Amino acid sequence: MKDTEILSTFNELDRPERAPAASVLVFDACQLGVVLRAVLFVELVMAVGAMYGLSSLSDWLLRLALLTAAALPATLLWLIVACSLKRLLARLTTAFQIVCGVALGAAAGAYGCAMLALPGLIEAAPWLASTATGATLAAALVVALVMRARGRTPAATAARLSELQSRIRPHFLFNTLNSAIALVRAEPAKAETMLEDLSDLFRHALVDQGESATLDDEIELARRYLAIEQVRFAERLTLEWSLDPEAGRAILPPLLLQPLVENAVRHGVEPSESGATVRISTKRRGSVVIIKVTNTVPAGAGAPGHGVALANVRDRLRLLHDVQGRFRSGLVDGVYQVRLEVPV
Predict the structure, then answer these.
(1) pLDDT (tens digit, 9 = 90+) per residue, 173-211?
(2) What is the CA 217 to chain-centroid distance, rounded?
């Protein structure tokens, strides 16, 4: 590799990053998890409220039905309006988003009261109480979602730190450099490619990738890592790829696939004298993309781990996709399997 190319590689890290967006949408009402939580939360509050002054179970059920007739349409209205204004709300600061959410809640509360007052289901319509209740419930839900959104930051930071630590782990780094040195004279082009792959891994670990990345980007990063490990382990590492082109646009947290692939090599290939087979597959099924990372393990056991990487992957997947993201892992018939499901 020429000196100018080496310098240009590191200069890319010194370039100022693009200014991040002024704010981030703190309550995405279009997500299934948010819809379910909002409906269940409001219904629970209505169920407790219906208990005041009740005389019998039938009286409670009647009150609950009446309150639900007002609260459920109001809640759905709040979710629909908030979802339709998603792009507009994302341009506002967090404080203004909260204010808008509370204001929409107040309007939804008044709408719920109207649902009972107009048909004559109640004699004296509690407009003020309904508006205040809607605003309070919306405020509680929005604050909970704000706290959940803030939870993404430490999780993403921990993932980047873990990724950087794994990249500069002496065992990995020294073996990579030694392999490149051994190839310099015999196969200089191969040695150059190996060092470029290592440089790209450092770059991805150091540069902020944002809140999400495409599956195609994650696959490309995994390919570079495995290309390095392929040189190190040679025939001990058998790679199998089964990729669905239609699954590449699925959204993942950045650096999510990398620790899974590294675990497969570290706990499958490294402890085995005969090597192991690592398989990465993706498949789109309707509105869901299934991602699998599997590896054979020596004698069905493999090197034990602490599960930190898997726990981090599980938490970050839940933060991004909520109930729509699924994670499973386990050892089946001598093959360790990790399965992810994400929406398209």
Answers:
(1) 666 777 777 777 777 887 787 788 777 777 766 665 566
(2) 15
Select from 277, 309, 279 the least CA-distant residue to 293: 279
Please report, in angstroms and rounded to a whole number, the separation of the first and last CA atoms in the chain: 40
Question: 299-309: per-residue pLDDT in tens?
Answer: 645 455 667 77
Q: What angle do CA 196, 202, 203 make, to 5 degrees?
A: 85
> What is the C-alpha to C-alpha distance for residues 225 and 261, in angstroms, rounded to an integer?
8
How does strand 276-285 pair with strand 237-242?
Answer: parallel
- Partners of 328 in beta bridges: 339
Question: 10 Å Cβ neighbour count for 6?
Answer: 12
Question: What is the spatial distance between Cα 7 and Cα 192, in angstroms, rounded to a whole number?
Answer: 14
Tell me which DSSP letter residue 53 carries.
T
Say whether 30 sits in a helix, a strand or coil: coil
Q: Which domains does the chain have, with CATH numbers?
A: 32-150 (no CATH), 152-343 (3.30.565.10)
3-state secondary structure of 288: strand
Q: Mind giving me the DSSP string for 61-75?
A: HHHHHHHHHHHHHHH
Residue 286 CB partners (closer than 8 Å, separation 6+): none
What is the sign, positive or negative, of the torsion defined by CA atoms of 121, 124, 129, 135? positive
